[in-house]
């Protein structure tokens, strides 16, 4: 029997998984992710990769849902964290990269 794979993640990272050809279910919060997981359990999915931020606070519900079940295997994956720098830091970094030394901006 062939099993399917699905990813449950936030809307910001869903596009990347879709571009890779993976079936994606978007969830904005842990409650929505749990509903998607319930749907996957009732279908023929063998693997569910879930954004770990969407599993926070649902550990007991997920344990109850998966009790006496082998599939789907649930794999949490870390959510990418954006590291934004200020506009001033960005310009200072670009200047340093191109002229070779740091210039203090006022």
What topology emerges from the helices and strands here?
Blueprint: E1 4-9, H1 11-19, E2 23-26, H2 30-42, E3 45-51, H3 59-66, E4 73-77, H4 87-99
Helix pairs in contact: 2-3
Keywords: Ion transport, Transport
Pfam families: ATP-synt_F (PF01990)
GO molecular function: proton-transporting ATPase activity, rotational mechanism
In words, what does this structure look like?
The chain has four helices and four strands; from the N terminus they run βαβαβαβα. It has helices spanning 11-19, 30-42, 59-66, 87-99, and strands at 4-9, 23-26, 45-51, 73-77. Helix 2 (30-42) packs parallel to helix 3 (59-66). The longest helix is centred in the middle third of the chain and has 13 residues, at 30-42. It starts with a strand and ends in a 7-residue tail after the last helix. The mean pLDDT is 89. This is V-type ATP synthase subunit F.
Describe this structure in a few short sentences.
The protein is an alpha/beta fold. It has four helices and four strands.
What fold name stands as the CATH topology? Rossmann fold
First CA to last CA: what distance?
A: 65 Å
**Which range best describes the helical content: under 10%, 10-25%, 25-40%, 40-55%, 55-70% or over 70%?**
40-55%
Number of strands: 4
Task: List the strand order in the largest sheet.
Answer: 2-1-3-4
Count every helix, treating DSSP H or I runs of 4 or more residues as helices. 4
Number of domains: 1
Task: Let me know the largest β-sheet.
Answer: 4 strands, parallel
Text of the CATH class: Alpha Beta
Radius of gyration: 20 Å
Please identify the structural class as seen in this structure: alpha/beta
Instruction: State the assembly state of the protein chains.
Output: single chain
Q: Beta fraction of the residues? A: 15-25%
